[in-house]
User: Fold these one by one.
Assistant:
Number 1:
Amino acid sequence: MPELIKVGFIGLSATGWGAQYNGPALLDPSLKDRLKLTAVSTTSPETAAASAKMYGEKAGNEVKAYHGSSARITADPDVDLVVVSVKTLLHKEVSIPVFETGLKKRVFLEWPIGRGMSETLDVANAAKKHGFTPIVGLQARCSGVVQKIKSLLDSGVIGRVISSRFIFVVPREARIWTPYANVDNGRRYSLEKKNGATPLMIAGGHQLDAFMFALGQFTSISASAAQIHPTLTLCNSTGTPTGETMASQFYDHYTFSGVLSSGVHATFILQMGVSSVPGRKTLDWVIEGDKGMIQALSETTFGGCINLASPNLYLNGEEVKVDGVKAGEWDAVGILVSQWAEVAKGSSGSCATIGDAIRLKEILEAVERSVDEGRTIKINA
């Protein structure tokens, strides 16, 4: 029998992202012999009690309620794995007390681990100082489609990989960031650049990690960017405008290219805020080899975000079916189930490490520097 890992989840509330996706994924029947939710921690006694009650009923076992310092849930002897999944502006504040307990627990941190590189390094240094090796929630690399792409590449079926392009679109119908921004459930914080939840860092970071997981890391970056939508229209989750607008604080279109550590020439394009129209691809990822090609395609609203939806996969024009994958559909829960399955494997799983996260953030910061300075940025191996 595999080891049963008892999970204490910081930030798993009764509403929001956790309730919709992380909770159902963690409690998926396929994981019941590997992961068991035993405790939750939120910001107040009331929300903690509500969350513990709801998830206890769903899990069929007692779930303890904690609030306040993250050290409290970490100290629970019935917690083996501490999950930190809170807003970016709280990542550092919540993560470091977990490490300062010195308790030998597994730790999972949600991407992007703080508002900027400085906070990410503070968290990483605290983890290292106290002997922790946290893993990071970059779940796209754990998805069935990305795992299959990597398997095909490793098999040599398309020969030597020469180049790759990754074009993804987050259309206006998604109501994320621009030009329409859903501000329900406290999401307004993501519209302020200082909070570190920008389109490039969140949407770009998740897709870029999967891209580099399959193909290798960028060693140079030449980037350009534009702000196509200077004004944001705030709305609720159904798309009804609140009557308020605000000036955009970020670029919404990026194009960058460079050479990967594998020698592959790569181009990466992020487009935000265009309309969904028939025939418009929200994802067009092509990998060219000297003996063949792999392509991942989607036309669905969130199809460009392979951490949330699974594209259709093709090898030399023939569709490749991936077991357990809902190709062409929104599949946030299914992809998170795959992530938690990899988490349960520990060091043998495919989850990103905090070192991977630092490297990814270095590359995203190189994109911003290239845009600002108008030059190619070299990235140290």
Number 2:
Amino acid sequence: VPNFCYQSTKGDVLLHDLFGKENWGVIFANPASFDAVCLSEMMELVRLHSQFISRRTEICAMTCDSLQELEEWVKDIEGMGVQRPPNFPIIEDPRCEIAHVLGLVENKEEAMTGGPSARQAVRAVFIINPHKRIAAIMRYPPRIGLNFHEVLRVLDALQLPEHVEEALAPVNWIRGQDVMLDVKNTSPDELHERFPEGLQIIDTPSEKFYLALTPD
């Protein structure tokens, strides 16, 4: 991901410095400030911020709005129930430059000149790994709010190989449940040697070897 340097509600932001050398990062791209769905997301993100910190993950948000608009919007985020301001930066992008680079608006010039409604970017989440590469992208229509539990689930799944290199996250997996194993280029005997405790190799009707589980 490019090393953006922009103003935010927490001062100037250099994206790679914000995320740090060893941390993961998440960019939450909002269609606009003073938007009901976006407000609900920011309030929930304030509540869940510690969940990301516990996962070695720094977060930031952005909209195609000016810093002045964002600072006014922060008052709503703080005052509508959470009773504290966001402890993460919300980045201004009034010229839609970041949104254009991230593929959130098709035509930057049209977005800049078409009024506030045209500047609304796609609602999206970008999960950035410690190598500063985009590991996952989640996109939602502007009318539908994010599912933060799914964002955390995907983040947990992406971090699995840090503990078990061969780990795969099966359908509806959540942290603490058994994980599947990538068994390509290995044998059952090699797996038993690699995972002496808790390994389950599952027989299939096809008699093909490709299903194995181990505790998270």
Number 3:
Amino acid sequence: MNKKQEIRYHLIFWILFIIMEVFSDIVLKDNLNSFNLYLLHNIEFLLLQIGVFYIVYSWLAPKCVPQKKWGNLFLGLLGILLLFAALRYIFEEVILYAITGYHNYYPDSLRPLYYIFDNSYYAFRIFLLALVFYFVKHLLNTKQEINALKLKKKQAELRALKSQLSPHFLFNTLNSFYAEALDVNSKLSDDILKLSEMLRYITYEQEKEFVFLKEELRFLENYISLFQRRFDDNLFIEKSFPKNTKNYKIPALLLLHFIENTFKHGVLDNREEPVFLKLTIMDEYLEFSLNNAIKTDQHLDVGGIGYKNIEQRLHLLFKKTYELKHFQKENRYFVFLKIPLKN
């Protein structure tokens, strides 16, 4: 419900409310002996009811209904009964009496308990009407929010579907290249297949928070293999991956950053100082260690933005249950990461 609709419905309600009140007074022949006095008292009483209505509608109900604080709402009702009686007494028996010289109640009816009891009907009526109006508004707004979320979800699914059209075309093209190269150059066809698997993995798996460890290791194997092809097999790396990964899961593409950093800044073509990469599973934890030679005149920024982003991600996922160390010692750079494995 938008603001214009809300105002329109409230105006219609108050017009109908006033008509019903006037009709009721005509039927009961109440206060018709003095039109001016009748008009003054009824305007005052209407304004009092409108004021109490919007105290409930705009303040009390929003604080209690969404949070389901029904006890507070009941206490609010008691407060409204007392407030209504007190305000009516001040307006009619003090202010208007000083102006007109007339009491709205007989003297015997002005006893506090009787006065509160007599006004509780009007106060409860306004309280109930305001509460019904708020419930209707709350239900309509909730329904609109749900519909809006459903629409956003559909739009997101449509965008995701559109974004998959190009990758699908690329995968199909690579598969065609693979089929054509299979009988011509088996090594080239293997590389095309690895590239296709890597692109598929990056496209679909990175959206997941956790992926199977065996799939992540396969991706890293393909990544390293393609880099070795780029270096004409002059990339020297000694690696060790666990064979039995069970159904363990780790965050998607978490380890790629460290290997990319090594391939970007490390010395890769020195047979005497190869890259050492080792992953082991120990007591439901994955231990990742990597070290590589760096150029003698090179100093790596161990506090760079890449590592800060990694540490933020690790903290969000594992809080204080992970360990990350990275440092430079002489001409080699070391990384050690230990994270809990997810089943």
Number 4:
Amino acid sequence: MSKIVWEKFLNTVKKNNLILPNDRILCAVSAGPDSVSLTHLLIKLKKILNFELGLVYINHKLRPQKQIEKEIKLVKTIAEKFSLPYFVEEIEIKKTRLGLEAQARKLRYQALQKIAQKHKFNKIATGHTLNDQAESVILNLIRSRNIDGIAGIPVIRTAENEKIKIIRPLLEIRKEELVKYLKENRINYCFDNSNLNLAFSRNLIRKKIIPLMEKINPSVQKHLSDFAKFSYYRQKFLEENLKKIFKEIEMHKNSVSLDLLKFLRYNIYLQRKLLNFCLEHLLKKSIEERTIDQVLNFLNSEKKETTIEKIKIKKWQKKIYLKKI
């Protein structure tokens, strides 16, 4: 199993150019089996490639203090054994509309980027696995109407800080393989009891929904992971071709304009992508599907002017004008 895990890890790193010589990589370590496996695989790769490695533990302050202390101790032990710098960062999760899981994720990535920027790491490595990818596809299909959502977790993406990349070298490895890898190599890790809590959507999918799907197709997780991968390739292809059309938009800091008649002749998918692009440029945030619905309804109506989401929209002289107010 050790050889299989190493080869899968190495293959993902190589074919996606995830790690290059002289990179400075910050590995997010929760002390669970996935992130501990990733840490040890990166330490092994570090002997082959010339890159710097640091570890970071994000304390969500959601678990019992004894469990948190045990996890931090394990991260510290690994760091000291291999002479690696390590960091511990706390985040404060409050009750918001986002929900616990979504807010924890948002704050976690903000904290990771903060540490990376402060200590000049150019990449953040996370321990997402093939299982996580399958769960993400199901979750996105349930929650999102947008076809782009089914692309799942990208193996590499640019962070909000554009100088930093987030990489996932374990996306083609199953969690079960990683647990066997750790046992074979007698590597310690911690178990997070919150993974058993079915109040969390991911746990419900992992413990209840996927086992039912596996009764129909035992390889369903691999198929969902492949589905996400090919959806990602499709999305990237479309984005490259959309760039040509995006160039037709007259872009300014607080306003955009485009040809109304040409826009109305476009396929509905392309219309939605164009509007999403324009609104994200003006509002500097992700746009909800219902907002795009509202704009499309206006553009297909007899009305000449409206205001949606602090954007004044006007149809005039065969053009669409969108202005932030």
